[in-house]
Amino acid sequence: MAEAATRELPPVSPGLPLPEELVVWEILVRLPPKPLLRCRLVCRAWRRLTSTRDFLLAHHRHQPSLPLIAACEYDDIMYLIDVLTLTLGRRTGVAARLHPVARYASTADYLDSSRDGLLLISWNTGPPQYSICNPTTRQFGDLPLISGFMFLGLYQHRHTGDYRILLCRAEKPVLEDVIPGHVERDACYVYTLGSNDIMPRRIGWAEPEVSVLGRRSRQAQLHGSLLHWYHRIKHMILVFDTMAESFRWMRAPNKTDNELNWERRADLFEMDSTLGLYCCNHGKTIVNIWALQDHEQEVWSIKYKVKLPVTCIRGELDMGDFWRVTVSSEDGVEVVLLECGQSVLCIDTDGKLLACLEHNGNDITVTPMKLKQSLVPHAFFPLLEGYLRRQPVSGLVTHFTPLAAAATMAAAAATGLPPPLSSGVALPEVLVVWDILVRLPPKPLLRCRLVCRAWRRLTSTRDFLLAHHRHQPSLPVFTGCRNCDVLTVDRRRRLLHPVARFDSSVFCVEEASCDGILVLWRKRAIGAHSGVRFSICNPTTRQSGDIPLPLLTGFMLMGLYRHRPTGEYRLLLYRIELPASERLVDVLIPGDRNACYVYTLGSGDLPRCIGWPEAEANGASVLLHGSLHWYKRIEDMILAFDITAESFRWMRSPFGKAVWRAFHGLFEINCMLGMYCCDDGATFVDIWVLEDYEREVWSLKYRVELPVLEIRRELDVKRDLYSVMVSSEDGDVLVLVNCKRAMLYIGTDGKLLASLPHDNDGLSITPVKLRASLVPHAFFPSLLDYVVNASPFSDQLCQNLKEDKAALTGDVYCLDERRESAVVAEMPRCFWFLDSPPSSKTTFLALRVFAA
């Protein structure tokens, strides 16, 4: 799979999902490692796509190359060495910062090389001993076969993909006891990581100048497939061809004798995809920077002559002239770095002081190396001696910082800004938030809030939550009689999702739904009329409460709606005539019987009478065009209630009274009112659509011939043991056929599309549909017995979500109550979505750290 940056991506149409290529190859590929790993928790598709080797290689190419700094620190009685990266933040407007990458014990002597996210470390144990690690994936291993050799460079051999180490054996008697015989002195060797070789392979080149390059003051710079070293004495550059494994010399920039005499420090560095060389005079007042314009012709040109602000430097460091000069670059911008004691000064090419950074330790050393983080797996690590992952041996590596996202993520975490895209042109924030995050299901969206504070802040506004709710699918709701479950169904994945579970002694019916809120009519299996109550719940936020008795005693629920002028949520009720034995409660609420009432949730007021005694209707309503709609079979008319004016009117139905209809009902289809009816023999279903709402013009859209024989074979039942209903999902019209063991999906062409088995005896289809919502509502705390994350939303429901267990195997996704308010400030405590109950040792988030 090629990187999407090289492709011509399709245009994005308003209201349509973004192409998968755009999300993965233009957004996720640019995130720092830590946010990327957190994004894998969003859904299985993102985890699968971001775990391929092609993606990880592209992700590595988009990471910034950041200067590496080594610093010593005392921790109680232990002498530690910190590995840090430096970001200037000039492009992102973030202040310069030092970021920890890894920490080593006192025996760690030096960072020898950095290549493709790998760090090569030497240990101060007499003759040189080496280890290699990837601080991003936290893998570590020793390299005993090259102990005693002098290190020259680390590179990847393009033909084989192997990582190889270039070594030399110097003329030193101390090495005789370390290196076995048959190893020539003053010769170069190559060792392949993960190979079965018992010794490095000799490649020759016995010139004495090579041993000088093994000193730690000379670091190899990789340009193309060539390693380069600057030989200060010869004023030449030694080049090693990693493909042919041969050396040659090339010219350095032309300098006068006077320039060579006053040269105090000089070295190569990588600058803007080419090779650069800098030198500083003895007085440490001027730094010259050259760029290699033509590698083949060996043409150099001076790019900058930086006059250091000596007075300002002395004022910042207060240590005289005891500082060391290094030149590095970030995002194509060259900077001069001055190290002294615990401080690092950053100076631009104009000679202006950019920043003064301090580390709480001693002896900061700015290395000529740069770190580009990588999650790419390497096969050689498990083959190394002492291979460790995540938990290094205490005698070697004290600890790794948990995936320090070098520079960009740390700066974002400190400032609250969104993490900047590391390469290329940043995608607009409006595209990421309003075209991608707004389309995610609630649980993945909540997990995306853990990626960074900016995403959490932007996705917690009311405007965003309302837009997110509008993008959610409207799913049919089902009731399971055996366990008193309320469920929704995912047709595409053929899964039932538990929404709520009630005690087996409670009989529950879904009465109405609006904006993610469910109204449930609950009655004790054994008991009088006083055992009836209405419950209001939001299954997404797991909030629930009851309407106080006796406010609704003697009322029948007709619908739930949001009153647009006030924003209040109101219940439309019909007051029925109570028996004489129950009229003591009835007198508490004044008003006519056999009339319609309106009750405002959270108001504390009594239901308000609005009249209309002839408007009695039960069953689920359809909210469309600002009105609630019911089909009244006896009148063969549709009753409509204007939710703004709070008045009723009658509308024509598409068929006459003479037609016998076993199953019938209203539903919504593409913002239009639809109606279906099924004949008594359950052999066909007519589906009508209200084409002109104002003129009440209906048209027959489909006549679906049901595959009766196939239905009976699939369900293994007779005709009178299954029910038929029509629903609309994502613009598709579907006929649902349900019995006690399975549910069938039938298309408008009469073909069986899918069969969804279920083990819930008595699973019944309701006309209620649920559209998930994270929008907070102020009326919930005022309800009777208000609860969050409690019955009927038990943790057992989350444990029953088998698809989430399969998607998130091995990870823990729960919130630590002790850190919840600080880390997820905008997230109510009802958003737990536990896969397992929390324990006293529950952590905030456990990430799958390793990709492969």
From TrEMBL:
Span of domain F-box: 18-59, 427-468
Protein name as annotated: F-box domain-containing protein
